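We modelled the chain as a single entity of 232 amino acids. Its sequence is:
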Amino acid sequence: MPPTPRSLARLERSIVACRKCPRLRAHCERIAIEKKRAYRDQVYWGKPVPGFGDPEARLFIVGLAPAAHGGNRTGRVFTGDQSGSWLYEALHRFGFSNLPDSTGRDDGVVLTDCFISASARCAPPANRPTRRELESCRPFLVAEMALLSRMEIVLTLGGIAHEAWLRAAGWWKEMPPRERPGFRHAGEWELPDGRMLVSAYHPSRQNTNTGRLTRAMWHAVFRRLRARLDGD
């Protein structure tokens, strides 16, 4: 594994410059040229998307990957699509974001005590990165965790992100299978290093439009995170 960059800014440059996965790079670049009709006048980002947030964050959120016309368009994780609207609304409601939605890299959003990342940094076809692609992106997740020295709570959104974080953090190998935290909505685990792992359904259209994930369920997770960080 390559050495950890000395700053989040250097790590961001490394992520944006990455071309390890030809399938993903070809897909993102094609989408950036073809565009969605609603965004045909916009210049798409079309590159790997770095994490975003407060370098002093105690809350670390891990999602799946940028959306083809969300993060791949805007250049910011969880920005410019419905999933991002759900996430930033909750972050604002519970004091982690100054604004209730994120629409682009220049929208003025500032996160406090929170950093948002992803398992894969390029938008994958059908929202399904391969295992090899996830493995290629894993060093970026490892590096972010090393640089976020105040991290206390990790929130994983969806089963893929849950496993990706457990692998990046080393718990996948260190814990016997029967002791590994298994993904479930609103799951909570105290890890051996003192950190807390929380899992939740991803706020994708597939989950929110079907009622599998409701606003009440979603807000309950963030209410718990806020209370834990506040010492309540």
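As a brief sanity check on the tokenised model: The chain has a mean pLDDT of 96. The beta strands are 52-53, 59-63, 114-118, 153-157, 187-190, 196-200.
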